[in-house]
Amino acid sequence: MDSLRATDTYTAGFVIIQKDEFEQLRGEYEAITLYPNWQYVTTNGDSQGDKVREIWEQYKNGDWIGIIGDDQVVSTIEWDKKLISHINGWNVVTCSDNWIFNAPTKHWGDGRFCGAPCFSGPLVRELGWFFLPGTHQIFLDDTWEQLGHMTGCWKRVFDVNVDHLHYRNGLAEKDDTYSRAYDHYCHGDTNVWREWSEGNGAKNAAQKIIGLKERIEKQ
Fold first, then answer.
1. Of 38, 50, 128, 201, which one's alpha carbon is 20 to 30 angstroms from that of 210?
2. For residue range 153-172, what is the model confidence (pLDDT) as tens digits?
3. Concatenated DSSP letters for 40-64?
4. For the chain, which residues score pLDDT lower than 50?
5. How far is Cα 161 from Cα 78, in angstroms, rounded to an integer?
6. Which of 124, 106, 99, 83 is nearest to 209 (CA)?
7. Is the pTM of this model over 0.70?
């Protein structure tokens, strides 16, 4: 919340929390002064993927949909306006995170999908998702790196930065949240993503994106 204030953020947002956790820590959460037009939303789902799928109806009709984690800190003034300015209806826009942005990908050899992704609303509605169905915590980046290279839908903005305070880059301790993400969900997410990536799932999604692009460019 402090970094949102410091960077003149203007967009509204949800802070998504699992219901049981919110009830257990209600006093601590309510003591936090939320940024204007931001609100708590609670879910039954525990994983990141389950949470965003559960509240689909609350954001699916937006002109764009963004996602940012609680281990990310915004450092660029008006970062959201700069990212949103590149939204074109069929693309996804990402930024730097002072960590993996310029690192080689596992598959493509150039910068990673990272930062605070902003997805065009029509793109998300065309697919019916932005977090790959069946996955819980990981492979959001791999999914969109692949689709970006298959369709050209991925736009990278180099002058916007969102610092990622992650245990793998030495800026955080590995806590229970990271353990669930990388230990508990890793095997299942890997299998789901690999089947999608190597099978018809990625091809079908890419065809939908290319079709959307063609319709938008004809308007």
1. 50
2. 999 998 999 888 877 777 77
3. EEEES--SHHHHHHHTHHHHTTSSE
4. 101-109
5. 11
6. 124
7. yes
